[in-house]
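ok so i was messing around last nite and threw this chain in just to see what happens. nothing serious, just curious
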Amino acid sequence: MIILVAALLVMGIMLGAVVQLPASASLVAGTVIGCWLIVFAVRERRARRG
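result:
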């Protein structure tokens, strides 16, 4: 759970810095964070079932 909070904190910092970054860099960062959250959710769901 702490990792999820840390990810949200990093995402908030990235959103604050998105004005300073080029659009392509912010899209890549957002995609990476989104994929990580999807992987995290799938792993958590499998852990609860197993």
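not much to say yet. Residues 1-48 form one domain.
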